[in-house]
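Contributing new records

If you add data, match the layout below exactly. Sequence lines come first and carry their own label; structure lines follow with theirs. Keep one chain per record. Anything else will be rejected by the validation script.
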Amino acid sequence: MPGLRATARLLRLMLVLLLGMAMASVIAVGERLGMKASTERRQRWTCLFMKRLIGALPFDVRVVGELPQRPMLWVSNHVSWTDIPLLGMLTPLSFLSKAEVRQWPVAGWLAEKAGTLFIRRGGGDSQRLREQISEQLGQARPLLIFPEGTTTDGRALRTFHGRLLAGAIDQDTPVQPVAIQYLRNGDPDPIAPFIGDDDMVSHLMRLFAEPRGEVCIHLLKPIGSAGKERAALAFQAQQAIHMALFGVEEETVAPRRQARAA
């Protein structure tokens, strides 16, 4: 029954959140005692929490491809808030995320401790953002960004913002394209997308009331950034992800036009 299923899943999620609160408490106590954990250790803890969180969500996850063996700038399409734990469970990562994520219970706090960069919509400080991304990559810390700048329903791909990839060029860091597909009965999942004025609680209850969906994560061939223009690099990553999602190259965006818009 959908009601009982949703209740059982919600209880499991609460147990995971309690685990996250315990982890956060240990980190906080250690900081007060002057035993601040390294960023690498906090990222590993966050990765562990993400794995538990995804285990509590109604998804069967399949990963295609290999994890990169060196720090890269991860670039992914963006469908839902669940993209973050889905990718964060694969390997210790830092994130570039909207400022609202910082207010999420437990997950937002852990994300901050793991080195997440929080940006406000319409902040307009592109140079500062470029410097922050470059600094993260310069410290050999893998970083995940969503260059569409917003979520979609998973049936189309928005233009990638080249300015978000400029830090990779500055540090000669390769780009790791990632394509996330949410499927239900072989078709794009209409429930998984977190779009428009959706709120977290309503979205969770919709997910919990339905049978398990499928998520396929495509880890695509890395793209070198050395000597490339940011718009061209963004376009190349966008094309790779579009091909993985839809099986054809996108025809509507050209690098020169994107360069003027970036």
